[in-house]
Design a protein that fits this description.
- This protein is of the alpha+beta class.
- The chain has one domain (4-78).
- It is built from one helix and five strands, in the order E-E-E-H-E-E.
- It has one helix at residues 39-52; strands spanning 4-9, 18-23, 26-31, 57-63, 69-78.
- A five-stranded antiparallel β-sheet has the order 3-2-1-5-4, covered by helices on one side.
- Strand 1 (4-9) and strand 2 (18-23) form a beta hairpin.
Length: 80
């Protein structure tokens, strides 16, 4: 099991706002989902990473003191 950490990336002169999700296996960066709020946007990034690697668990998460979010798999639940 790998924890997934996410971080908001502010817009730059050439890129819009994004959320990066990473774990030991690798990372993905998604455009900021403005239609979602707070943790839901970070969960979307975590799920994008889990989809990339075929992980099908449900994730529980929360915010870290530095503003990042972390998500861990709950093997008792599935997304199906």
């Amino acid at each position: 099991m790998q924890a997934i950490q996410t971080r908001y990336l502010a817009p730059t002169n050439t890129l819009g706002a994004r959320i990066k999700a990473w774990a030991q296996a690798g990372s993905v960066t998604i455009p900021y989902p403005y239609w979602l709020s707070g943790q839901a946007g970070h969960r979307a990034a975590a799920l994008a990473l889990s989809d990339k690697y075929g992980w099908t668990d449900q994730y529980l998460g929360g915010q870290l003191p530095n503003g990042d979010y972390v998500f861990v798999a709950d093997h008792n639940l599935s997304r199906e």
